[in-house]
Every structure is written in C-alpha cells, then in structure tokens.
Amino acid sequence: MDKKIFIYTNRTEMSNSIENMLRNKLAKSSLHVFDNFSDDTDLIICIGGDGTLLRLVQEFGFPKTPIVGVNTGHLGFFQEILPEKIDDFIFLYNQDRYSIQGLNGVSCYIKTSDGTARHIALNEITVKGLSTHPVHLNISINNSFIERFSGDGLCVASPAGSTAYNYALGGSIVDPRLNLLQVTPIAPMQNVAYRSFTSSILIPSNDRLSVIPCSDDDKTLSIIYDGMMSEYENITELSIGLSRKKINLIRFDDYQFWEKVKSKFL
Ligand code: NAP
Questions:
Q1: How confident is the model at residue 1 (pLDDT cuts 50, 70, 90)?
Q2: Is 50 near ligand 1, meaning CB less than 6 Å away?
C-alpha cells in the first residue's frame, strides 16, 4: 500500500546528499515523499544525529507518527539506519518487518508568581542557577520532603535520556523498557554545612518530583530541555515527572538495546 513519508534533516552536506539518494530510491517504490508533515503522514525519516532527532521532537511536539533515523551525526544512539543500509530499510519497511520502541519524555510544569509554563523533553530536564553560585532547592517526591539540595543543579532524565547528559554526570544507563525517572545531582555539596545526595535516585513513572527554591536568590533558574534553555524568574515550584507523551521509534529485527550501548560506549 502507498505510504506518505516526510523527511526531516539537519541540512549538512552529508545529510543533503543522503536525502537526495533516499528520494531517488523512494521514487521507485510505493513510499511517497511529501514536503509537509501532516496528521496522516505514515513515517518520518530523520537524517542527522541524535541532536537532529531532539530538534524534530521539539519542533513537531512529540509526533505520534513513527520515526526512523538515518545516522549522519557523531553518535547516533537514537538513529537506527546507517546511510549504506538504506536499501535494507526500504525492503524491510515495505514488508512491515520492524517493531516500535515507544520512548516517553519528561515534563516540567513551572509555577511562578506571574503564571505557569511547561516544557517536555525527550532526554532530560536540567535545572540550574544563572550564575556560578550554587542553587539551594527543597526536593520532595509526591509531597514527601526528601532533601535540601545544594549544588550546581539537577538533571532529571527519562530512560531514553539516560545515555546522554545523565551518563556524563555519573548517572546510570537505563534500559527503556524500565519506566522510571532518574534524578542526578550536578556537583552536589556534601559537607557539614550542606548535605545532598551525591548519587542518582530513581523514582517510579507515576511519581512527581517537586522542586521549591529555598530563598529569593534561588527563584531565578534556567530550565534546560534537551539542550534548549529558558530562564524563569519568581519561581515558586517546579513539578517534574515522566510525560505521557512519547515518540515511536522504528527498530528492525536485529535491534537490541544493550548491543547498541556496547557499540556506542565501549
Ligand atoms: P550537542 O552538544 O551538539 O550534542 C550532545 C551529544 O549528545 C551529541 O553527541 C549527541 O549525539 C548526544 N546525544 C543526544 N541525545 C543522546 C542520547 N539520548 N543518548 C546518547 N547520546 C545522546 O547538543 P544537542 O545535539 O543539541 O543535544 C542536546 C543534548 O546534549 C542534551 O539533551 C543533553 O543530554 C546533551 N548534553 C550532554 C552534555 C555532556 O555529555 N556533558 C552536556 C550538555 C548536554 P549526536 O552526535 O548523534 O547528535
């Protein structure tokens, strides 16, 4: 059956040449490329690296349409296909020989004395102060007070984001079949004056993390969602949890999460 395809690319020289090659190959198949994304698009092909996929997800607001990545980036953890495997991809896709990996995002509701805002990230929500001073934040889980955090900030990662900034901060890699949030401290202070957890904590998917600035000095914060930053003043509370929004990545038969981890990290 004919399918509607939308191609999203980071427009590098390599991605442009892969796109041209892909368009030529698809023109000879029952897969038709359209210049605009719409609700009845059957498949999004994302050409670039993981960063390109993150930008696609933000631009189209966590589209439900299945996405397949062609890696022309540096790491390509999300990206399933190498450029030289495009013929295999067209063959397998036409035969419906693939599975869908659903990846939930992380949502952050921001309450300020001036109003509310919300960001959803696929990888992580990072909370930091604006200057070089540490931030002091009261952390609760489901209204139960846990700690007064002091340090550079917090990284709250989805399982999909566990291999990104979270991992660089010393957090653990999480198989995305586990539905949880990982809260990883960034340069936590641990001395007689300040006491914060120094390792990640894992919280179940239905729980919410509440972050309340300890003093007026901590009420202006940077909220970083998948590397994109917004600054907010007069914050009264941040409520962070696993989002119901998810993306659907196409994976082929030979995909295994830990094989992918091994090939990209070891
Ligand atoms: P970037 O600085 O251009 O690239 C960040 C790197 O992270 C790229 O190599 C990217 O892969 C890789 N990456 C992104 N998501 C990943 C994932 N889920 N698993 C493994 N690696 C992943 O920034 P960007 O491309 O806009 O990406 C934003 C992301 O950068 C943030 O979400 C954050 O996780 C990450 N970050 C990491 C650090 C750090 O490691 N110290 C610091 C800040 C931010 P590609 O090469 O395939 O694009």
A1: confident
A2: yes
